[in-house]
Design brief:
The chain is α+β, with helices and mostly antiparallel strands. It has 3 helices and 6 strands, in the order αββββαββα.
């Protein structure tokens, strides 16, 4: 009896852990820089709290809340996002790499005269993963959005 109950709990937890939620802002990137610099002075809670903030300024921005499972998307909601989006990172290395990536892409798009589209946001898989991401595309917003959704599905496995 106890063994069957344990198996049911494990199966229930594994199906629940495969669900993911993504909150992101997508649009045409104007500028990216440090945001909320004074947040770095906050005390660290075992290195888990987000102390590094990336501010991204958009044109034609749209916010998305997506809930899904590892197989398919089952709920998408859009909302009016602010022109400035703040993305919190807890790891300094990842923050610096993402900031460098987006700033270099903005410079390159200004030189080329092309548009740069990005989706910045947070992926959360219950009891398994939580992280901030930046995905860029020179083609369209949908391409950057697809990369973010693939990241959420990848972590849900």
């Amino acid at each position: 009896m106890k063994k069957n109950l344990l198996i049911l709990l494990v199966l229930g937890f594994s199906t629940f852990a495969q669900a993911y939620t993504i909150s992101m802002t997508c649009g045409e990137v104007v500028k990216a820089r440090n945001g909320k610099i004074l947040k770095r002075l906050q005390p660290s809670f075992f290195g888990l709290n987000s102390k590094f903030v990336l501010m991204t300024k958009f044109n034609n921005q749209v916010g998305y809340m997506i809930s899904g499972s590892s197989n398919d998307i089952y709920n998408t909601a859009t909302f009016n996002a602010d022109r400035k989006s703040f993305t919190n990172f807890s790891l300094k290395d990842k923050y610096q790499a993402e900031k460098r990536k987006i700033k270099n892409a903005v410079k390159k798009s200004r030189i080329d005269g092309s548009d740069l589209y990005a989706c910045v946001g947070h992926v959360n898989v219950a009891f398994k993963y939580s992280g901030s991401h930046v995905f860029l595309s020179n083609e369209s917003v949908e391409d950057a959005m697809k990369k973010m959704i693939n990241q959420g599905a990848r972590h849900a496995w």
